[in-house]
Description:
The complex is a heterodimer of chains A (446) and B (436). Chain A has 446 residues and is α+β, with helices and mostly antiparallel strands. Helices cover 41% and strands 17% of the residues of chain A. Chain A has helices spanning 67-74, 87-93, 118-130, 136-155, 158-170, 184-188, 192-202, 218-228, 282-295, 302-310, 343-360, 364-381, 385-397, 402-413, 417-427; strands at 25-29, 35-40, 46-53, 97-102, 107-114, 208-214, 253-258, 266-273, 314-321, 329-337, 433-439. In chain A, a hairpin with a 7-residue loop joins strand 9 and strand 10 (329-337). The longest helix of chain A is centred in the N-terminal third of the chain and has 20 residues, at 136-155. In chain B, 44% of the residues lie in helices and 19% in strands. The radius of gyration of chain B is 23 Å and the shape is globular. Classes of the chains: A alpha+beta (446), B alpha+beta (436).
Amino acid sequence: xxxxxxxxxxxxxxxxxxxxxxxxxxxxxxxxxxxxxxxxxxxxxxxxxxxxxxxxxxxxxxxxxxxxxxxxxxxxxxxxxxxxxxxxxxxxxxxxxxxxxxxxxxxxxxxxxxxxxxxxxxxxxxxxxxxxxxxxxxxxxxxxxxxxxxxxxxxxxxxxxxxxxxxxxxxxxxxxxxxxxxxxxxxxxxxxxxxxxxxxxxxxxxxxxxxxxxxxxxxxxxxxxxxxxxxxxxxxxxxxxxxxxxxxxxxxxxxxxxxxxxxxxxxxxxxxxxxxxxxxxxxxxxxxxxxxxxxxxxxxxxxxxxxxxxxxxxxxxxxxxxxxxxxxxxxxxxxxxxxxxxxxxxxxxxxxxxxxxxxxxxxxxxxxxxxxxxxxxxxxxxxxxxxxxxxxxxxxxxxxxxxxxxxxxxxxxxxxxxxxxxxxxxxxxxxxxxxxxxxxxxxxxx
Amino acid sequence: xxxxxxxxxxxxxxxxxxxxxxxxxxxxxxxxxxxxxxxxxxxxxxxxxxxxxxxxxxxxxxxxxxxxxxxxxxxxxxxxxxxxxxxxxxxxxxxxxxxxxxxxxxxxxxxxxxxxxxxxxxxxxxxxxxxxxxxxxxxxxxxxxxxxxxxxxxxxxxxxxxxxxxxxxxxxxxxxxxxxxxxxxxxxxxxxxxxxxxxxxxxxxxxxxxxxxxxxxxxxxxxxxxxxxxxxxxxxxxxxxxxxxxxxxxxxxxxxxxxxxxxxxxxxxxxxxxxxxxxxxxxxxxxxxxxxxxxxxxxxxxxxxxxxxxxxxxxxxxxxxxxxxxxxxxxxxxxxxxxxxxxxxxxxxxxxxxxxxxxxxxxxxxxxxxxxxxxxxxxxxxxxxxxxxxxxxxxxxxxxxxxxxxxxxxxxxxxxxxxxxxxxxxxxxxxxxxxx
Lengths: 446, 436
C-alpha cells in the first residue's frame, strides 16, 4: 500500500454478493480491451473509482522481488500532465481520498470522491496508465520509503517474518513463495529501469479492469470510460499469465522460528489448496465452509468448542481459507495454546480434531449456522461501497467472471456435508503441508 | 489541462452529506431514552451504536482492568444462554455485536437484519442487561486478556504508549492501563464484573446512534426494551487534569531494526472554541494527506519513514496533541530533528493562505466520504452526541470549516504548537539520538 493507513484497508473482507437483494452490476469491454464493471449504489452522491491491473508480485521477473509493489509507489511520482508527484494533491484539492495496493495477483489504484469528480479521476488514472515519468532521485527516496514499509510490516513483527518463511517453504516452485513486498536485498537493488520495464510491459488497457461503484448510471460510466480510457493504446505484449506451478509435494515440512519478541507462541499449519476457478467454484465453496465449521466464528466452531471450551487447552484457535487467487494457494489453521500447554500438545489436539471431523462428519446445526451467517454477510456487504468494488476487482483479477461472483452465494448454500468431507480428505494431506511453531527465545528449551 | 481543472475546484463549495445531514431525527422513547436516527430503508438492516460514558477510568486502583474484562464478557453468556449458546444464537440470526472499553466509555455496536430484528434485539438485551459472568467464561476470557497483557511487554508500540502515558499523567487514571496489569487482572473476580457492569452501563449515561430500516416509533420501543432494565450508572467522578509534559526525548532500549516513535504535547478540548481551527491546522501539518508538512518533509523528501501523522486527542478530562511514526534506527535522530523543526516553525510562522485553502477543499470535500455505510453513520451520530454537538452539526460542519480564517488559524498555531512541551518517546536502538 502506498500510503500508511494502519489496519483499515487490510481489514477489508471479501464477502460474496447477495441473493435476495442483488446489487446492480453491469459489465462492458472497450475496444482497447479495458474491462469496465459498474456497481450501482445510490445512497449518497459519492463514487469509488478503482483501476485494477492483472499483474501482481507473482508476475515479477526472477530476482526482482518487490518490483510490483515498488512500482505501485512510483505511480504517484508524476506524468507530463500531472507532474512532480502532485497526483494525490490534485485528488485532495478535489475533496477526494486515494491510495493503492498490491497483492500476489493484482495491483490496484483507487479514489473515493464526490460523483461529479468522476471524469477527472478517469482523466488522471488513464493519463498515468502509459504516461509515467520517473527519475533516479524520486526512485531512490521512494525505495527508502518501501524499505521502511518492509521494516514496519515485516521485520518489526515476528508473526510476519515467520509467515514469510512458512510461505517460502510451502511453495516449492510457484512465486507465491516470495513475499509481495520483496526480499530486502532484492528490494534494495531495484533500479529505475526495473520499474520502467515492469510498467511498460504490464500497464495497458488490455491488462486492466475498471471498477466504478457509486451513484452512477452504467451508460454514463461507459461513455466516460470511452472518452478517457478509450484512446489509450493496448499493449501487444500482454500474454496469458503462466507462472511456474507446484510439482507434486511429497514431504511434509516443519519449521520453528524463535524470536524474543514472541509472548504468545502458536502452532500454525497450511496445506496447499485449490482456488476458485471460473465456472468451477464448488470445491472452493466446500473448503470455505470447511474453514468456517472447523475454525470460523470463535468458540462455536469445532476447534473452538473442543480446544477452548471442552479441553480448555487453547487461548484461541481458527481456520482460514480465501480461495480467491489466480493459482492454488493454501488452507490453514492455528492454535494458540494456554500458558503451560506445549506446542506439541496443541498440535496433537489439532490433529485429533481433524481426525474427529473426518470420522464423525459435520454437525448439521453447525453447518446451518455457517450458511446463515454467510447469507447475513451478503446483506452487510451491500453496506460498503468500497467493499463491493473490492470484491469484483479481486475476483476478476483472479481469473473469475462477474457471473462467478454472482453465483458464489448460491454455490456456498448448496454445499453438503459430503462435499465438505470430500474436500477435507483431498486437501488435508500432510505431505502438502507446512507446520510451523512460533516461539519465544527460550520456549520449550530445557 | 488537469491542473487547470483542479484550480477551478477552488470555487467549488463542496458536497454536503445530504441524506445523513437532513434526515437526522431525535427520537425519545416512551421510557425517556434519546437517540439520533437516520432512517435508511435501502438495505434490510439496522445498525446501532451505544456509547456509555465513564469507561475504564472509573476502575478502582486495585481493580484495574475490570471494566475492560467486563466488556469482553458481555457476549460470553447471558440470561439462559451460556457462552456457546450465545455465540450460536448470534450466528443463527446473522447479527454482529461488538463490545469494547475505552478510557471514557464502553462502546457497543450492533448490526442486525430486519428479517429477525425482534429476536436479535432480545439477544442483545440479554448481553446488556443480564450478562452471566459465569466462572468458566470468566477464566477463559481472563486468560485471553492476560495473553494480550503479556504481548504488550514485547511490543514496541505498547511499550512506547505505556511510557508516554505515564509521563503525561503521573497521578491520574489516564496514566493507568485500560486493560489493567497482570497483577490486578489476576485478582479480579466475577463479583467485580457485576460491580463494573452496574457502574459502567447506566441507562442515564448512554448516547445512541441508529441507522437503518427502522421507524422512529419502532426505534423508541426497541430502546426501551434494550435499556430499561439497566440501573442508573454512577456519576463520572474523574477529575480534569493537565498533561505533565516537558520538551525532550525519552529513549527505551528494544532490540528491533526500526524504532517506534510517539510524540505528545497538550492539546485542546473538544468544546474549546478554537477546536475546529486546530483540527484544520493539524490537517495541514500532520494529517494523513500527501501534502501534510510532516509527510512531505519526513517521507516524501527524505524517505525516513513509511508514514507519519499527528492528531488531536480530546479525552473527557484532558486534551492531548499527539503523533507517531517508525523509522530505521540509523535515521530516527534525523527524523526527530525534523519534526521538532517543523513544530517550531509552525509556532513561529503559522501556515500560508494557500495551505489553508487546500485544506478546506479537502476537508469539506472528503467529509461526505465518511458516511460510507450504516454502521459508520451510526458511530458518527453517537460520537457527535458525546462531543456535545448540535443535531444540525453535520449540515453546518463544512460551513464552519470554510469560515476558518488565516488570522484565526495562525493565532491558534502560535498557542497550540508548544515546542517547549513536546515530548518524544523512542522505543528501539536509535543511533545518535540525544536524550533529555
